[in-house]
Design the sequence.
């Protein structure tokens, strides 16, 4: 096994990769030999990300994509399949959230989270699976969240959508194991992603921000994670190093899920 080019010749679809964890995964996969197909609803971020990705993997492509729109999801996936000729690795990376108690959720917001966080991944999976079945191999990696199992007030819909992703992946692993297809899930804990840093910078400088950073640092036994920590886990599950692993939900959370908080 070549540990330096683990995805040589593979075609990988990253559903959102203009920023954050998805971009980190796309860059690592490109370094490891994959041709990467990346979606994003942020056109400016996608253009910048693709410049970096294409420098590593020139045949890679980016696509404008709003995963809250089911018709757009279906259409773009069809286009990617035409361009790529098939997908060997699917990574569902999207995750949007709104924090509010259950009695304040509107149908519109619930539908948007459900479509974006859960159904979009299922739409991509049902599009790429026939080709994987025909070739007798493939890997699907879902980027879920620690909130799917251990959460906090106000996250009911977000936790529900990520929990659904976990549950579906376990059943899909059973369905497609006879076809040589593996399905696994990563649950990140606190990751200092672009989005998280936006939140940090929104806190006023000085004591407030220092206290907020101290709070983040104390949420797990290890220091807060970096985007590359999730990308490394995704690479492991995407390639042959994990060929005997399927149906698993792996917490990459610095130990937060085993810590008893005060």
Sequence:
């Amino acid at each position: 096994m070549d540990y330096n080019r683990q995805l040589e010749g593979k075609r990988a679809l990253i559903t959102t990769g203009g920023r954050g964890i998805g971009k980190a995964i796309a860059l690592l996969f490109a370094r490891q030999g994959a041709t990467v197909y990346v979606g994003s609803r942020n056109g400016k971020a996608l253009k910048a990300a693709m410049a970096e990705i294409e420098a590593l993997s020139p045949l890679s492509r980016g696509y404008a994509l709003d995963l809250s729109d089911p018709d757009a999801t279906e259409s773009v996936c069809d286009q990617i399949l035409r361009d790529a000729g098939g997908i060997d690795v699917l990574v569902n990376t999207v995750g949007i959230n709104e924090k509010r108690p259950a009695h304040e959720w509107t149908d519109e917001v619930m539908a948007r989270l459900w479509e974006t966080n859960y159904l979009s991944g299922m739409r991509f999976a049902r599009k790429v699976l026939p080709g994987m079945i025909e070739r007798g191999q493939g890997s699907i990696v879902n980027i879920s969240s620690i909130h799917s199992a251990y959460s906090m007030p106000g996250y009911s819909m977000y936790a529900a959508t990520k929990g659904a992703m976990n549950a579906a992946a376990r059943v899909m692993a059973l369905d497609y194991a006879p076809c040589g297809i593996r399905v696994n899930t990563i649950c990140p804990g606190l990751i200092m992603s672009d989005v998280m840093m936006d939140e940090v910078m929104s806190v006023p400088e000085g004591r407030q921000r220092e206290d907020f950073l101290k709070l983040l640092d104390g949420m797990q036994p290890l220091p807060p994670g970096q985007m590359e920590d999730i990308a490394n886990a995704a690479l492991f599950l995407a390639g042959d190093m994990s060929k005997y692993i399927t149906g698993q939900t792996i917490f990459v959370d610095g130990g937060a899920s085993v810590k008893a908080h005060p």
Remarks:
- DSSP finds eight helices and seven strands in the chain.
- The longest strand covers residues 181-188.
- The longest helix spans residues 107-135.
